[in-house]
Amino acid sequence: MADQANPFESLQAQLDAATEYVDVRPDVLERLKHPERILETTLSVELDDGSIELFRAFRSQFNGDRGPYKGGIRYHPGVTRDEVKALSGWMTYKCAVVDIPYGGAKGGIDVDPQQYSESELERLTRSFAVELRPIIGENQDIPAPDVNTGQQEMNWIKDTYETLENTTAPGVITGKAIDSGGSAGRVEATGRSVMLAAREVFEWLGSDLSDATVAVQGYGNAGSTAARLIDAAGGTVVAVSDSSGGIYNTNGLDTDAVATTKRETGAVTDHEAPEQLGNEELLTLDVDLLIPAALENAIDESLARDVRADVIVEAANGPLTPGADRVLTEKGVYVVPDILANAGGVTVSYFEWVQNRQRFSWTEQRVNDELERVITEAFDGLIEAYETDGTPSLRTAAYAVAIQRVVDAYTQGGNWP
Ligand code: NAD
Which of 226, 288, 393, 411 could disulfide-pair with 194, CB 3.0 to 4.6 Å? Predict the structure, then answer.
């Protein structure tokens, strides 16, 4: 079982590791290690039986030097202030590494959404939107989906905000349904960038994704899309898992069929496969590529010693503890970090926001082409930093590039008031 590293401490350790490769004063760097503002609130929501239940909710606005705060909202039991702070920091450096004009934010509600009816979730979401209203906006802070939230929650937040503000502001939130101002390609965007990052890293290493065997932990939005696109690109997805467990087929799984089973029954293990396997077994399979696409801290230091994959592309945010990261770096495993690999979601969110501001819709092809450009350029920049600066890992190179961009924007603006 993975240790529960404090994700905020993980973020700070990652920033510290990159410091020596960045031209930054220590006091400026210190400022860039802490959120600028956190909203912590208790939502009182009426349940269907008329009783009131309280829910703890957070929004962390980490840094706004490069543009409006940007980041998802997750619904998950046990969401903590430190988790949201860390995720908001990762968003800051994610937007910077792919060079889109946003700062970073993240929100969360401590709730298990499966325990509540749709009308209860609507009241919960609208209640959070009311609390968020003073600090969000098309030019201030733009939330988006994350774990256990999707188009429906985004549509409710947009509607609540627009009603209270007596305006139309589709760009106040991204990840909306198409008819509510969403973008073509948004649902698949995170998985698509994971596939693109995998393709690029294999090419850089002188091989080809189409020759790779792949294991994917987590078969939700990010994991299942990455698996299906890698499958379509010729890779062999031999194992996938979700919270029910994993399935394994050395000849490759039919990733579309697994997604259909998951949609119908909620569990990949209901899909017929030659072998079932546990979560840790999946993470230590002898594959070319491992994609953690579930939650933070999936791989800790001790599990990392048993990892046999040559390459890890992080679809989830923070899936490796700092100890795991150190062990994998020592073992020579190439890890394409979350802040680049899963940046497709926020990049297409940015395209959605641009389309909302323009009151103009792009075709899915245009969205996918622009996403490919952003991710491949970011990957090239990362490799240039890795090869030029001699950073110990791709993650450190990514942070060095990203921190430098945030530092430059901050320094150019100056420290005021
Ligand atoms: P999701 O809720 O759609 O899917 C999560 C999946 O992980 C589910 O299949 C769940 O069963 C599985 N899971 C949970 N615990 C597990 C465990 N212990 N072992 C194996 N599987 C487990 O969420 P998502 O949107 O796909 O997000 C997954 C990760 O990707 C998160 O870290 C999220 O922050 C990150 N991410 C998502 C997006 C996006 O646009 N969806 C963007 C950037 C980053």
Answer: 226
Rounded CA separation 106/93 (Å): 13
Q: What is the pLDDT of residues 179-193, one digit of tens each?
A: 999 999 999 999 999
> What are 46's strand-pairing partners?
52
Q: Whose CA is nearest to atom 43 of ligand 1?
A: 342
Q: In what order do the strands lie in the sheet with 104-109?
A: 37-46, 52-63, 104-109, 69-75, 141-145
- Whether the upstream peptide bond of residue 417 has omega within 30° of 0, thus cis, is yes
What's the alpha-carbon Rg for the chain, to the nearest Å? 20
Q: Is the alpha carbon torsion for 372, 378, 380, 386 positive or negative?
A: negative
Of 191, 183, 133, 126, the closest CA to residue 152 belongs to 126
Mutation test residue for ligand 1: of 176, 276, 317, 339, the one with most atoms within 8 Å of CB: 317
Note the pLDDT tens digit of each residue in 279-311: 999 999 999 999 999 988 899 999 999 999 999
pTM here is 0.94
